[in-house]
Amino acid sequence: MTLYPLAGGLALLLFCLLLALLWRRASRRRNATYRRLPALFSPGERAFLAVLREVVGERALVFGKVRVADLLTPRSGLKGQRWWRAFNRISAKHVDFVLCNRDDCAVLCVVELNDASHQRRDRRERDAFLAEACAGAGLPLLQVTARARYARADLEALLAPHLDSRHDTPVAPAIPRCTACAAPMVQRVARRGSHAGRAFWACSRFPACRHIEPIDRSQE
C-alpha cells in the first residue's frame, strides 16, 4: 500500500529535476557570449562559389574561408620573436577560396573575391601584404572582382594553368544565373494558375529572391 506514495514522490522529484535542467540550459543561452551566424558565405560569395565549382569540375577540391596560417608558415631561418611576429601577421587572416589537388590536398592556388570593401585603406594594406607573402612563398594568388555575373570562359582562362588536366571532364550545360542576384537558378513546375504544369526557372535563393524566368526549350 505504501508503494503508490513512493512512486508519486519519485515522479515529482524527476519532474523537478527536469525543470531545473531546462532552466539551467535557458539561462546559459541568455548569458552566452556568442551567437550563431546564419551561413558561412554571404549571398555574393555563394553566387561566385557556384560558378567556381562549375568551372573547376573534377579538377580540384574547393575550400572556403581558409586561414592563411594553414597555407603559409614563417621560413625556418626565423627564430624566436622574429618567427612569432611573422606568424602573428598571418594567424588572424583568411582567404576566400583555396583550390587543392584532389589526390593529396596540396594547395594549387588561392582565389580572392574582391568586393567594394577592398577599397578601404586597411583592406588595401591587407591585400598588399597577402600578395607579397604569397608571391614570396610561391603560392599563386588569383584576384577576381565581385560582380553580378561571371563569365565562365574568363574564369576558366584564369584557373586553367593551375588545375590538374588529368581530371578534365566534359563541361555540363551551364546553369542559368539569376539576373537579380547572380545565384544559380533551379527548375520548378507551376502547380496552379494558367501556367499549371509548365516548368520555369526560379532563383535558388527563394524566398529571399523571387525572380523567375521562362525556360527556353529551343536551346535544349
Automatic annotation (TrEMBL):
Keywords: Isomerase, Membrane, Transmembrane, Transmembrane helix. GO terms for cellular component: chromosome. Gene3D superfamilies: Bacterial Topoisomerase I, domain 1. It comes from the Bacteria. Residues 40-155 form the DUF2726 domain. GO terms for biological process: DNA topological change. The keyword Nucleotide-binding does not apply. The chain crosses the membrane at residues 6-23. The keyword Transmembrane applies. Residues 178-217 form the DNA topoisomerase type IA zn finger domain. InterPro entries: DUF2726 (IPR024402), Topo_IA_Znf (IPR013498), UCP028063_topo_Znf (IPR014538). One of its GO terms (molecular function) is DNA topoisomerase activity. This is Topoisomerase DNA binding C4 zinc finger.
